[in-house]
Amino acid sequence: MHGKPSIINPSTDNGEMSTCFVPVNVDVPNVYAIILKCEHGEFIFKSPKIKQLWEGLKEGQEVIVTYREVYKNKYNSYKLKESRLIKYEFIDVKPK
Hints:
Blueprint: E1 6-13, E2 16-23, E3 34-38, E4 41-45, H1 50-56, E5 63-76, E6 79-95
Antiparallel strand pairs: 1-2, 3-4, 5-6
């Protein structure tokens, strides 16, 4: 729960404009992410597993990351013309 904001709604009463306050509850789910730094740069990982990892890891802790490299390939007459790394897909992270 992230607060209980109020909304001001205009209303008419006997042909005159007035405002009334309507309390509203806002329920926003928590979002967890882990930022990892390595020789490739910084990476932000979000996944259903992240909450447990986020709760179990400490800032500065060394970890072993399992990831997949994703390439964009271009072909010319069925021969590979160009292959370019476009991202790293997070698979898992475990304490070292």
